[in-house]
Amino acid sequence: PFTERTVTSYIKLTNPSNHKVYFKIKTTAPKRYCVRPNCGYLKPMEISQIAVTLQPFDFDPTEKNKHKFMVQALVARDNDDEENPDMWKGIDPEQLMESKLKCVFENPVIQTMTAETTKSEITTNNGKNKGVGDSVKSSPIKISGETEEKLIKAAQEVNQLREEESALRQENLQLKEDLLQLRNVLLVNEATSANKNFNTQNSSESSPTVTSILIAVVMVILGYVLGKMI
Among the four residues 71, 162, 163, 202, which has the most C-beta atoms within 10 Å? Predict the structure, then answer.
């Protein structure tokens, strides 16, 4: 199914913070995928859908777990009102937030191949039993039925495993989004705490000045009163 047409899936990016966040998406197989947009920024509380398109190619089962994507995020500096591509140059790796995603191929041909195999086995068994007595004919038909039941059961187990894997991938993506939200909240709290400390320091520095003025005024009044008494 990967040789005739393109296949598109979507990545949802969410910015839960009050700051603009730049993002960049990388893949281990850039020739196989078209990512639009592969970089940009999200405004505070903005949600964006990223289209990931798989180009037609000859499917190799050994590659089904090798393709990966990495989403990098960077909180913009204060007063950054326009897009700034130089944000990614010379940045500290500790400032980057990264999320890694694994690409999983779902091949719908498996069920078709299973049905064709079952039909072929039944036809072969019927051909071999032509001209043989009724007591001999019943045995191959019974075996074919058991084989068909096993194949159907195996196909159901495969579908169940795929559903569980898809649920785990969704849960993993949700956990990564929650982690990104927590990190952004921590950044906002640190900035707020720094502003509070700065304001407290300014008020503490201004207090001695007011106190000194009051002491000077009291001393002048006392001097004036003492001068009158003398």
Answer: 71
Alpha carbon of 210 to those of 59, 73, 214: distances in Å? 79, 47, 6
The pairing of beta strand 47-54 with beta strand 39-42: unpaired
pLDDT in tens, the chain (230 residues): 566 788 888 999 999 999 899 999 999 989 889 999 999 999 999 999 999 998 887 777 776 667 899 999 999 887 777 777 777 888 888 888 999 998 877 765 554 555 555 555 555 555 555 444 444 444 444 445 677 777 778 888 887 888 888 888 888 888 888 888 888 888 877 777 777 776 666 655 555 566 777 788 888 887 777 776 66
Buried b vs exposed e over 168-182: b needs ≥16 C-beta within 10 Å?
eeeeeeeebeeebee
In the chain the beta strands, taken as DSSP E runs, fall at 7-14, 21-27, 33-36, 39-42, 47-54, 68-75, 97-102
Say which CATH architecture domain 7-106 belongs to: Sandwich (2.60)
Q: How far is CA 14 from CA 36, 69, 73, 159, 199, in A?
A: 16, 17, 11, 30, 33
Enumerate the domain spans of the chain: 7-106, 153-194
Residue written as token pair 């009102």: 81
- The long-range contacts involving 158-163, CB below 8 angstroms and separated by at least 24 positions, are 158/110, 162/106
- Which amino acid is it at 62? T
Q: Does residue 22 contact residue 88 with C-beta atoms inside 8 Å?
A: yes
